[in-house]
Design brief:
Protein name: Aminopeptidase
EC number: 3.4.11.-
CATH topology of one domain: Immunoglobulin-like
GO molecular function, one term: alanyl aminopeptidase activity
Strand order of the largest sheet: 4-7-2-1-10-13-12
Enzyme class: hydrolase
Strand content: 15-25%
Bound molecules: ligand BES, zinc ion
CATH class of one domain: Mainly Beta
Radius of gyration: 28 Å
Keywords: Aminopeptidase, Hydrolase, Metal-binding, Metalloprotease, Protease, Zinc
Distance between the termini: 66 Å
Low-confidence stretches: none
CATH architecture of one domain: Sandwich
Helix content: 40-55%
Number of strands: 27
């Protein structure tokens, strides 16, 4: 068993001189790291992983005894004495293709294969690049000196500017005091665009030369304005000379906040400014804003230990919306929060066995297996949105200024943040947040009129089986009636005589107005009818909330989908993107009740036709100059619904547009390109078309076009083409491992691809484990499967295959959760199928 001590306790580094010589040809790194710090005892441990250490020496060059302890990722060194020490470690290491540590990215320009070297160190891979105390609290300054098999025209960048080049060695300015997981560098043939903020920070966007230079413009503008925004919002200047953004062709996560050199998946950074969806712009902007939020919250002030990783991530996840809302107010990005983070959190957090936001961990490898995006990001962000709504922006900013000031270049915990926000607001934020962060799950608040009294109660909400152990939350209620408490912390509350309250308020009773608190509401029939009768007065978020809460209640068996279905037509003609999104999410959840190609599915298709007809007529197939932002986002939803409905005019219209643009598919309007391609493959597909699309996929650098092609190709109904697609899964020249999950998910969602995709996963599991097994994304392949399966047969197959894998610590929790997810869906389908399908039939007759 590895020992779980923090190396920082015995040795506190203050400075590293890191020398690296990277040879791409031989895939070999040789290095020498000189470390200065304070030893509490002569016997210390320094992190290393996969390093071959040849010498440990004092500053004077005397050899020091050392032993390698791979079980603990350590080299153990005995110093001459405790106290201030400087010593060097000489080693060599492999350059591996794991997308961790120092690794190559592969890409092509005009058929010529190229490489770009980059780094990814969070959470614990800096130790694969150089020996260090690889813990967030072990902050130190770093001086990097890097040599590589350099060719003319190549560039190298890092956290800090280059100071000088001597004998082919690039020396970088010493960093500020920072954590090892934030060190980064990259080299290869790069193009870049630069600008400067009002305060003089140099901003740059870097990418391979495979991209059209204009793809760098949008991210450059967003990065510049984000830094300017945060300097103002945090009342704290950006402390480094530059902020570089770099797109890496191979990237395991989405993006990474290395201080001064943020790295991104290309699809989340570069975009074609002349043909891109508003959604894609919003995605890129929020990703950049997220990583740049971390430059302060995470980089300047870092969590003390990995158990508070949520603090970094939840906070940055909230700030991406705060920042983008300030940069692009016309986007109404907080509305998008309601259709992205909110449903993800509410769905996942309702499954018994889910983790809480804050989970104590010792071993950083363990955190990878506990790291649940829907909880740490989505629920965590929702928690902070709740705090922000409670204390307001002024107190938030004052508290943050305090927090950042007190812990700059140092570390902090969640408790430190609550203390600062508590002080700024005069509220017991820590007390309120404790009930949300340290408990899994969330409550359903039941609002009912009982014996004439308006009453509230709270109870944990579950989808599927859940053990109610009487958890309670301190719920910010945000009611429109003054009689409701601001914080509802009891099990039940009686607010007073309903008729009187209703008359005095003049509007239906509601709680969670704005949907900023993490709970759902079940109104009794009196209250719900009152709300629905006045639905036209409700804003977009309130309308979405009706659909979303009823959908969740139906998932949890607290109401029936048969009651939800008749409500859908009321929202069909909404011009709001988020109401439309919620509507088609609700409609989509009815699909699990129908067998593909059955009469019941035909009824459901007819319902989709009804729902979409008016909007298809209003909006048409092609973007118009007069489109509002909402129109642009509504159009793909309603066209997609018309295509699912097999509406003949829709199929013909898409086919016609395809025919007119056969030779320039990339230039089809990005909003509808995916639908046009998918329609073509599904209804008019030939092997030649699939080949043409796969070829285009390999050639384009446009992430949206790639995902459009992926969606289209995987929609094939031809078994031979399905087999051809699967044959590409393990060919990195077509499908990069970072993109494979998307391919797998798309094919599994296609009824005609499901069996083959599932067979592939089971047959080639060993290959998959070898390729992405060390990755945080690995368990999400199981999540994808659980998102699709809905029959007892599939449930049995799922269990047969995954039960024996439960002892893999990276998979244990996910397998348990997903077994529950499928079980509850199978039960729900069995129980509700007839009623739901009858309700749909009634709507379309
Ligand atoms: N710091 C994370 C990436 C990360 C987290 C790497 C944990 C290793 C372990 C980064 O800031 C991040 O959150 N990236 C997101 C994208 C983001 C825009 C939501 C990701 O990679 O999914
Ligand atoms: Zn993050």
């Amino acid at each position: 068993m590895p020992e779980l001590t923090h190396f920082y306790d015995a040795f506190q580094p203050s400075h590293y001189d890191v020398y690296l010589d990277v040879d791409r040809g031989t895939k070999h790194i040789s290095g020498k790291t000189t470390i200065t710090g304070t030893a509490k005892t002569p016997a210390i441990a320094i992190h290393q992983k996969y390093l071959t250490i040849t010498a440990v020496q004092t500053a004077a060059g005397a050899d020091l005894p050392f032993t390698v302890d791979d079980a603990n990722d350590a080299v153990r060194i005995t110093l001459p004495a405790a106290g201030e020490a400087t010593f060097s470690i000489t080693y060599s290491a492999p350059l591996t293709d794991t997308m961790m540590g120092i690794y190559p990215s592969y890409y092509e320009i005009n058929g010529e294969k190229k490489q770009l070297i980059g780094t990814q160190f969070e959470t614990n891979a800096a130790r694969q690049a150089f020996p260090c105390v690889d813990e967030p609290e072990a902050k130190a300054t770093f001086s990097l000196a890097i040599k590589y098999d350099e060719k003319p025209g190549e560039t190298i960048i890092s956290n800090m500017p280059e100071e000088r080049v001597e004998n082919g060695v690039h020396y970088f300015q010493q960093t500020v005091r920072m954590a090892s997981y934030l060190v980064a560098f990259a080299f290869g043939e790069l193009q870049s665009k630069m600008t400067t903020t009002k305060s003089g920070v140099k901003i740059g966007v870097f990418a391979t030369k495979a991209h059209n230079p204009n793809e760098l413009d949008f991210p450059l503008d967003i990065a510049k304005r984000s830094i300017e925004f945060y300097e103002d919002f945090y009342h704290t200047p950006y402390p480094l000379p530059h902020s570089w953004q770099l797109g890496l062709p191979d990237f395991s996560a989405g993006a990474m906040e290395n201080w001064g050199l943020v790295t991104y998946r290309e699809a989340y950074l570069t975009l074609d400014p002349d043909n891109t969806t508003l959604e894609m712009k919003q995605l890129v902007a929020t990703v950049i804003a997220h990583e740049l939020a971390h430059q302060w919250f995470g980089d300047l002030v870092t969590m003390k230990w990995w158990d508070d990783l949520w603090l970094n991530e939840s906070f940055a996840n909230m700030m991406e919306y705060v920042a983008v809302d300030a940069l692009q107010p016309d986007w109404h990005i907080w509305e998008t929060f309601q259709t992205s983070e909110v449903p993800a959190a509410l769905q996942r957090d309702a499954t018994d066995g889910v983790q809480s936001v804050h989970v104590p961990v010792e071993n950083p490898a363990e955190i990878d297996s506990l790291f649940d995006g829907a909880i740490v990001y989505a629920k965590g962000a929702r928690m902070l949105v709740m705090v922000r709504a409670l204390i307001g922006d002024d107190a938030l900013r004052a508290g943050l200024k305090d927090y950042l000031g007190a812990h700059s270049y140092g570390n902090a915990t969640g408790a430190d943040l609550w203390a600062a926000l508590g002080k700024a607001s005069g509220m017991d934020i820590g007390g309120i947040m404790h009930s949300w962060l340290d408990q899994p799950g969330y409550p359903v608040v039941t609002a009912a009129v009982k014996d004439g009294q308006l009453t509230l109660s709270q109870q944990q909400f579950f989808i599927g089986e859940g053990k109610d152990i009487g958890r309670q939350w301190q719920i910010p209620l945000n009611s429109n009636y003054d009689a409701a408490p601001a914080i509802f912390s009891e099990k039940t509350a009686t607010l007073g005589d309903y008729q009187q309250l209703r008359a005095a308020a003049g509007e239906p009773f509601r709680v969670n107005v704005g949907n900023n608190s993490h709970f759902i509401v079940q109104y009794d029939s009196t209250l719900l009818k009152d709300i629905l009768d006045h639905a036209a007065d409700l804003d977009n978020i309130a309308q979405l909330q009706i659909l979303q809460d009823l959908g969740l209640l139906a998932e949890g068996g607290k109401t029936s989908y048969a009651n939800l279905a008749p409500l859908l037509p009321r929202f069909a003609d909404s011009h709001s993107a988020i109401v439309t999104t919620a509507l088609y999410r609700a409609a989509g959840s009815l699909r699990k009740f129908v067998t593909p190609d059955s009469p019941e599915e035909n009824n459901l298709r007819a319902l989709y036709d009804q729902l979409s007809a008016g909007q298809v007529t209003r909006l048409g197939w092609l973007p118009q100059a007069s489109d509002t932002n909402d129109d642009q986002m509504v159009r793909p939803y309603v066209l997609s619904a018309a295509l699912y409905a097999k509406n003949p005019q829709a199929i013909a219209a898409a086919h016609e547009i395809f025919n007119q643009n056969q030779d320039k598919l990339a230039s089809l309007p990005a909003d509808v390109r995916g639908l046009i391609l998918t329609n073509e493959v599904r209804n008019f597909g030939t092997p030649a078309l699939i080949d043409q699309l796969l070829q285009a996929y390999r050639q384009t650098t446009d992430g949206s076009f790639k995902s459009n092609i992926r969606a289209a190709v995987t929609a094939t109904t031809d078994p031979a083409e399905v087999a051809k697609i699967i044959a590409q899964f393990e060919d990195a020249d077509t499908v990069k491992p970072q993109d494979l999950r998307g391919w797998f998910a798309n094919l599994l969602h296609n009824h005609r691809g499901e069996q083959a995709a599932w067979d592939w996963l089971r047959n080639d599991w060993a290959w998959l484990a070898k390729t992405v097994g060390g990755d945080m994304e690995f368990p999400t392949y199981i999540t994808v499967v659980a998102g699709v399966f809905r029959t007892p047969e599939r449930l049995a197959e799922f269990k047969t295959f995954f039960d024996p894998k439960r002892d893999n610590p990276a998979l244990t929790r996910e397998i348990a959760m997903d077994t529950k997810v499928i079980e509850s869906r199978v039960k729900l389908v069995e129980a509700e199928q007839d009623a739901v399908n009858a309700a749909v039939a009634k709507l379309v007759k």
